[in-house]
C-alpha cells in the first residue's frame, strides 16, 4: 500500500478547516485526501486528479464513505484550470501536489518503472501516449544523451546513449532488462557497485521525458495560484532536485510579486523514523506557501 509522504507536515501547512475545499492534484491512493476529508467535514470537498485510471478506481473505493464529498478526474494536472472550470469546483482553500509516483506504479503497473523487474518498456502514467520504448528505439543519439544528462544528471550520458544506439541496430530494446544490459555495458565497473543502482538515473530520466513531468509542473503551478482563494495554501512535495528547483524558483518569484507568502523558509524533509518506515520517502522535500 502506498504510504503518504510527509503526511503530518503537509497537513500542518495546508491547515484544512471544516467545510473547506481542496484539490489533490496527484491523488494516487488518496492518502493525503483521506486526512483532508476527515478535517473538512461535514461539507468540505476534495477534487482529486490522477492520470492513471487504475488509481482513480482505487480512490473511488477508498473514499466511498465520503461519497459526494470527493470528485475524481482522470487527467493531467497541467490542465488544472480547465478541470476546475468543468467541475465548477470552488472556492479552493488549498492545493497539494505530491510529485512522487506511487508504489503501485513500481509494484503492480507492469509498465517498466523499475529496473528490478523485467517488464515492457512503457513508463507512461496514462493509458496511452509516448513510451520509453519509443524514445529508446527511435530518438537520436544526441537526444538520448540530452535526456540522460538533463533529466537524470547522469555522468555517463554520452556512453549510455551510444551503447543504446549500437544495441538497437541489432534488435529493438523493448524490456527493462534489455535497457539495464545496455546501461551496464556503457558504464565502468566501479559505477556498477555504488550505493545507488547504476540504472537509477537513466530510468528517472526516461520517466520524466515520457511523462513531460517538468514541463507539466511549470504549467500547473501558476494555474494553482490563480485558482486559490485569498488565504488559500499550496503544498508541493518533490522527490528530486530538478522538481524542487522549479518549485523553489516559482514560489520565490511569486513571493517577490507579493502574490504568495512562503511558509517554508527551507524545504521540510522526512525524519529518520519516517525514512525507516518508508525508504522511498528519503528524497522528499516539502515546500508550502499561502496566497496573499
Tell me about this structure.
The protein is α/β, with parallel strands linked by helices and 292 residues long. It has two domains: 177 residues, Vaccinia Virus protein VP39 (Rossmann fold, 3-Layer(aba) Sandwich); 101 residues, Orthogonal Bundle (DNA polymerase, domain 1). The protein has 13 helices and seven strands. A seven-stranded mixed beta sheet has the order 3-2-1-4-5-7-6, with helices on both faces. Helix 7 packs across helix 8, helix 7 crosses helix 10 and helix 8 crosses helix 9. The model has no long low-confidence stretch (mean pLDDT 95).
Please give a quick description of this structure.
With 292 residues, the chain is α/β, with parallel strands linked by helices.
Rg, rounded, reads 20 Å
Per CATH, the architecture of the largest domain is 3-Layer(aba) Sandwich
CATH class of the largest domain: Alpha Beta
Profile the largest sheet. 7 strands, mixed
H/E element order: HEHEHEHEHHHHHHHEHEHE
By secondary-structure content and strand pairing, the structural class works out as: alpha/beta
Tertiary shape: globular
- Mean pLDDT over the full residue set: 95
What is the CA-CA span between the terminal residues?
Answer: 37 Å
- The overall strand count is 7
**Helix coverage percent:** 40-55%
Number of separate structural domains: 2
Amino acid at each position: 500500500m502506498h504510504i503518504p509522504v510527509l503526511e503530518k507536515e503537509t497537513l500542518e501547512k495546508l491547515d484544512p478547516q471544516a467545510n473547506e475545499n481542496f484539490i489533490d492534484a496527484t491523488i494516487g491512493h488518496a492518502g493525503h485526501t483521506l486526512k483532508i476529508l476527515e478535517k473538512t467535514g461535514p461539507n468540505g470537498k476534495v477534487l482529486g486528479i490522477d492520470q492513471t485510471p487504475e488509481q482513480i478506481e482505487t480512490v473511488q473505493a477508498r473514499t466511498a464513505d465520503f461519497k459526494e464529498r470527493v470528485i475524481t478526474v482522470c487527467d493531467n494536472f497541467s490542465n488544472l484550470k480547465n478541470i476546475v472550470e468543468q467541475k465548477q469546483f470552488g472556492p479552493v482553500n488549498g492545493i497539494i501536489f505530491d510529485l512522487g509516483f506511487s508504489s503501485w506504479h513500481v509494484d503492480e503497473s507492469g509498465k517498466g518503472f523499475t529496473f528490478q523487474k523485467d517488464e515492457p518498456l512503457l513508463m507512461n502514467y496514462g493509458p496511452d501516449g509516448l513510451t520509453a520504448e519509443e524514445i529508446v528505439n527511435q530518438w537520436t543519439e544526441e537526444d538520448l544523451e540530452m535526456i540522460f544528462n538533463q533529466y537524470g544528471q547522469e555522468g555517463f550520458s554520452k556512453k549510455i546513449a551510444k551503447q543504446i544506439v549500437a544495441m538497437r541496430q541489432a534488435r529493438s530494446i523493448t524490456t527493462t532488462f534489455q535497457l539495464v544490459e545496455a546501461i551496464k555495458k556503457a558504464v565502468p565497473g566501479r559505477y556498477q557497485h555504488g550505493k545507488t543502482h547504476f540504472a537509477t538515473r537513466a530510468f528517472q530520466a526516461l520517466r520524466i521525458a515520457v511523462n513531460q513531468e517538468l514541463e507539466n509542473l511549470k504549467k500547473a503551478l501558476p494555474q494553482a495560484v490563480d485558482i486559490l482563494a485569498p488565504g488559500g495554501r499550496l503544498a508541493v512535495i518533490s522527490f528530486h532536485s530538478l522538481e524542487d528547483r522549479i518549485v523553489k524558483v516559482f514560489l520565490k518569484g511569486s513571493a517577490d510579486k507579493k502574490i504568495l507568502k512562503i511558509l517554508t523558509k527551507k524545504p521540510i524533509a522526512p525524519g529518520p523514523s519516517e525514512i525507516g518506515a518508508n525508504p522511498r520517502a528519503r528524497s522528499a522535500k516539502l515546500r508550502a506557501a499561502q496566497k496573499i
